[in-house]
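note to self: dont lose this again. the chain is below, predicted strucutre after it. 67 aa total, dont forget to put it in the shared folder this time
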Amino acid sequence: QGATAEEICLAYPSLNLADVYAVIVYYLRHQEEVEKYLQERQEIAQEVRRKNEAKFDPQRVRDRLIN
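---
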């Protein structure tokens, strides 16, 4: 997203600067693996959503909750 390590620490006070830099270094050294992992997780999430929407029609669930 373009944030610096320092900006990330300010946005998430529970993180420390050294750990943020460690994650950045890991990502830069393993970018292809990380991108592949993230893509796989995105595909799994989309499949789960598709199955849930097929099983539980969102409009019907909404209607039941409202009425």
